Structure formats: structure tokens, C-alpha cells
Amino acid sequence: MEGRIEPGHLVWVPFGRQQVQGVVVGFAESSPVPTRPVARLARPEPVLQPWQVELAMWMAQAYVAPLAETIKLFIPPGLLTKDGRAPAARAKYEWVVEALVAPDAVAARLRTAGRDSAQACVLARLLQQPQAALARAELRAVCALKSDSTFHTLAGKSLVTLSGDEVALAVSPEDARGTAGRVAVTSMRRSGGVACGGSSPGKSTLAAETGADLALLRAMQADGLIALRERDPLPRSIGRPECAHTRAPMLTSEQQRVWETVRTHAFDDGVRHSEFLLHGVTGSGKTEIYLRAIGAALARNRQALVLVPEIALTPQTVARFAGRFPRRVTVIHSELSTGERYDVWRLVRQGEFDIVIGPRSALFAPLARLGLIIIDEEHESSYKQNAEEWGSFTVFYDARAVATQLAAITQSALIMGSATPSMESYYAMQQGRLTLLEMPNRVLGHREHVAREQVEAVPVASVPQGQPDHAEPTVYAELPPVEIVDMRQELRAGNRSIFSRSLSAELQTTLSAGEQAILFLNRRGTATFIMCRDCGAVSECPLCATPLTYHERAQTLICHHCNRRYPIPQTCPECDSKRIKFFGSGTQRVEEYVHQIVPQARVVRWDADSVARKGQHAAILREFVEQRADVKVGTQMIAKGLDLPMVTLVGVVAADVGLYLPDFRSSERTFQLLTQVAGRAGRSARGGRVVVQTYTPEHYAIQAAAQHDYAAFYARELLFREEHGYPPVQRMARLIFWHKNEAKAQAESERMALVLRRRAEGLLFRGDLDILGPAPAFFSRYRGYFRWQILLRAENPSALLTGLDIPFGWRIDIDPVSVL
Description:
The protein is α/β, with parallel strands linked by helices. The chain contains 26 helices and 32 strands.
């Protein structure tokens, strides 16, 4: 097969007594081991493009991962198979029907058409005089029938009646033609415009309208009446989402300034590789910059990739992009079935789409003419494949780093946007690796929406001098004021509710005005844990050694690590006491408190429990946008990227959750969450307000979030990172060992730490290198496994690990987002 095989081809190769699939990544003159010939191609065309092979090889090196595993990331689920079996994912086509005979010529062709030409002939003759009865002898002579069996068959189908020596139609002429399939051509003319936008109709359409099955259509094709061909079905959910078409608005002065920088650096004279960090406050209009950049890339015959952190953001995001670029957008996300993901991959590969939107896995879409990568809400931890996730993952990649490398390989522009950039991205900007674009003012949004209600706008500033003539007059809105409530003072005042007096009053005022509120809590369930008040024992998951969460509606305890369920104890398993108490509050409990304060409030919850089924993200969002709910109670999902004009109050029930976890990113995560969730309020001229409840109001992360002051937080946090050598000042790697025997987990971790220290000495490792541990992980037990970890801090930790013999049970996490 020399000359036929190319890099990226999927092939069958002999392996022992069986054949397995492999992907060609290159060619070599010799091999260090004996080889056997490639058996055959699995598919005629390469499944990977050259840039994908190059990126997979870079990922294998950067993340100390097997090349086979990085290659798999680019291949859609269901395409790979074993032992020559058919793949689980195959293209699904539908038959479409094309008329070859004019309607007025159909009758002349009916004599020999169809499954039974004798029945067709009798019906055709009767249809010439549908109101009359014809003699059997006449019909036998015209249709060359040897007996009356054809008449009896038609009578058995209730198509004709037999009376003496006469035969007559028993159904209307239309039904007679439809049942026999003789009206298929005219039916195609009638239904084509409705079903397929003027194109030839599908087999299913004709079957519904005429009863014509595939066998009948094949017979009609053989008779020259129609032609059958295959066509991609392009389901609306995964093909081309249809949204109301929108036009580009006039740019504000800030948008115009930012867009000129992007256009000049990336899109003048074609598409150039440029990397930007777009730091814009919530509501500053970052999405319009994305849309302008996509338009510029498309105008230069290049394609665009848009990454979003959560599937929950997809409906609003897709609507914005599909409305601006109709029939050019597709979506990749985890709710697609194996077949749907394969269809999207295949259609993107065929060039059916120019814009792909999705979470981190969308990075591997086969866009042949990629020219632009956008990472929205780039600070989100979900862009990093987490080593804590349960499953057989072996490549714990960071989509931001992979996107940066992909942009360099394909010579594409890269825009990373956020109101709260990650420490790594902002540090990279300061080091000169990213071009900073700033949009510090919030644009007053939804002016048309609130104008109908005659709500007065509260502008901060008019347009600065020198604004281009083509930009519209700009009204900037203030970011919502944030009130910090010290919950210690609430306790001293006798208020033991999870709602402060201020939040309760604001909630009542908001709902009385017909407005909406969002309440943020970083916990699911009803109560955080169950504890015995006599001996202090806490109900824990025996497999994960973490406290179980009480879910009142399900009347069960759930481990939020392994999702196992346990019955609620009636007595303490340690001391047999009945004095068991529920502590803490989850989203379910917050919902109950809302009903106590405002009984008539319509409340929806948006957390991992309430959106477990497919499509529930979009359903809950639609319910809230359409104002069929007054209060949304949720976890981290509600903090991200949603634009809700009627939300004028955001309440953070417990700002301290996670702030003091033993993880160097705890303060950063808290600041980002509080700033992002506060940004959900005041997106229209109605204004907004935010109430943050905390037991540590003096903490710099909470103070900076209340002031919407990213610069202050970054400066203070960077001092902490520099002092301890944490990212972004130094890079980090985390090695985690899993084993069901605690002693073996400890022994293997100690052995590996010794190997790493000797290896560092032998390699004369350049630069600073710290090897911390081994030690038990913070969550030391998970799904029945004991977990020990080693932390490396170095300029390039991969260099120490490359080529190292790493036994089964270890997970290597380069640039971890958590060390818990």
C-alpha cells in the first residue's frame, strides 16, 4: 500500500492472532522492533488532518501521556472498533425522491408501474371513470388477466367492490392512487416545499402522506417514474441551529478601540497568528468583539472555533452566533449521543460548517481552514481535564494551553476573554506573551426591553470625545453596588436564619416590583452533613471518607464524590445516641427559606441535581428568561455568562465556602465566583444590587470582589504566589497514586518520590525544582481507593517526568487546577 497510506490514516494491523486498529502518524526508514505489514485501510480517507497529528504529538510530550491516548481525543466516539467489527458510529442517510415524469404523464405509465402491474392496471382503468362500474370481462381483456384473483385481492384491501359481473372503486380516487403509490409524483410536488424547503422530499415524508414504502419506491424507480438518492439528514439539534437572524450593531467607543486593535494585528491582509487577552467587565460587550472577529475570519475563507466552559451556556451562546451567521454554526457537547457526535465530526470534516461551538472537547473538531479560536470565560476551571474526575482518562490537558499551541500550528488568531482572567493568563500578558485588550465599562443593555416600561436609565458617562461617526451613542451603566453583610453580627443580633435581615428585605422588595432574583450557594442538597451531638461523629461515605449530604426530597444521604446513596441513620452508629442533627444548608434548604419569606414566589433550582436529564439546562433557563419563575437558586452554574435583564438582585448566601480549603487557588476561585455572580445583576436600566453574606468580610478576595477590582486582587494574590513559588510564578505537576490498600499506596508513593529525587540529581536539573511529599491527598479516600500525592514545582516539570517508568495506578496532572 505504499503511496496510498498517509499520516492520519486509520488502518488495520496484525497484532498476535488478531487485527487491531492503529493511526499512522508518520514514516520511518527503520524500526527498533520487528514489524508486520499493514493489513488494510480502515477508511479510504485519513481520519486525522496533519495539524491534528502534530498537535497530538505535542500534547503527548507536554502532558507526559501516551501518544495513543492523545490521538484518541481527535477521533469521535464510536469510530474505533475491535476485531473488524462494524463501528458503533456510522453515517445515517435518508432516501430522497426525485420526480422523473410530469404529473399529466403519470396515468400513461401506471399500466406497468408498481409492485403488481395487474393491480395497477385495474386501478388505472377504474380511475379513468371513477364514478362508474366496469365489467369484469372488459377489465380482464384490457389488463390481460387470466382470472378474477386480482379483483378479489383488491377487494380484500377494500380498494374495490364486486357486484355480480361489475367492479367499482370502493375508495376515493385520491385514496386509490395513494394506496397503490400512483400519486407519489404529485405528492412530491405538493409536500416538497413544506418538508424540505423546495428540494426533493424524503422517503419518510412520502410514507406518511401516501403509504409508499421503500420497496414500492424502488419499483417506481425501476419503472422510470422516480429517482432515489441518499442525503445527509442534518438534524436541527446537531446540524444547523435555526435562530432569528440578527445584524451587527453599532460599536461603542470601547468596542471600536478594541476591535481596531484586533483587526489590525490579526486580520489585515489575511489572517495572522496573534494572541489576545480580552479583559472586560460583565456586560461590557465582549461577545460583539468575538462576532466581529469571526466575521473577519469568514471573509478571508477561514473557520472559527468558539470554546465555552459549560453546556449550560450553550443555548444563549449558540443563539447569538447562529443568529449572526445563519446555517454556518454547529455545536459539540456532552449531551450528544455517539451517533450525533459522529455526524457532527463528519459534517465538519466535509466543510458543512464554518463555526464550531462547544466545551473543551470541541478543540478536536476537524476544521481544515481554522483561522480563529475564541475562549470565552477563559478563567473557568472546566477548561482543564481534572485528574479527580472518575474514569479512564490519561490525558489531563488544559484547553487553554492546547488552544494556544493549536493557534500557533494553524497560524490562527486567539482571543481569550473574561471579566476575571486567570492568574496564569494575566501573568502571561505581563510577560509579553498576550496582547491586553481592556473594556472596563458596562454597556447599558436591554434598552428596548425596559423602554416599554418607561424605566429611567442611570448612565455613568456619555461617550468619550473622538468616538468614530459610525458608533452609536453609548450609555454606560454602573456595576451593581455590593453590600457585604457580616454574618457574625447577624448572630449577635439574634438572627439565626441563613438569610441576613438585609437579604430578606431586598428579596421582598425585588419580588414586589415584579423583578427577579438569583441566590447563589456553592452547595447542593438540603444540609451539608449530619453529626451526632453527643459524640461528634459525622456520617461519612465509607468509600470516600467524606461527609454525606442530606437530600430532603429524596430522603437519602448522597456522596457527592461517588454518587452512592445511603439511608438516613436513626441513631448514631458510634455511640447509639438519637441526638442526630443536620448542619449547614444546601440549595434545597435555601429554596424552603425563600418560600418562608415570600410564600408566593416561584422558585427554580439550577444545580447538578436539577439538571441531571438531557435538555434540562435549556428548559430551566427558558423558564427564567420568560419570567415564569421569580427566584433562581443555584450553584456555580448560575455565575457564568448568563444575560438576564429582569434580574436586579443577586444574593450570595455563603461567600466563605471553599475560601479556606488547603489549595493555593482557593482565594482566586472565591474572587472569580463572587465577581461573576455579582455581574448577573443590573444588566438593564433597572439597575441592580448584590448582597454578599460572609463570616470573613475582611478577606482581600471578598473585598476586591465587592469593589469589582480585579487589579487589586491580582496584585495581592501574586504576592502570595511569589512567596510560595506557586503558579503562575512557577509551573506545577501533581502525581497521584490510587490503590485500595492504604499501606501499598504509601509505600509506592515513597518509592516514586525517591526515584524522582535521584532522577533530578542525575539529570542535573536546571532551574528551581521542589519535590513536595509524598503525603495523603486532602480527599484521601475516593470511591474505595486510598490516594497519595507528590507535588513538583519547576519551570518545566514535564522534563523531569518524560521517559520515566510510571507504573499502573499513577495519574500525572501537569498544571493542576486543584491539589485537593
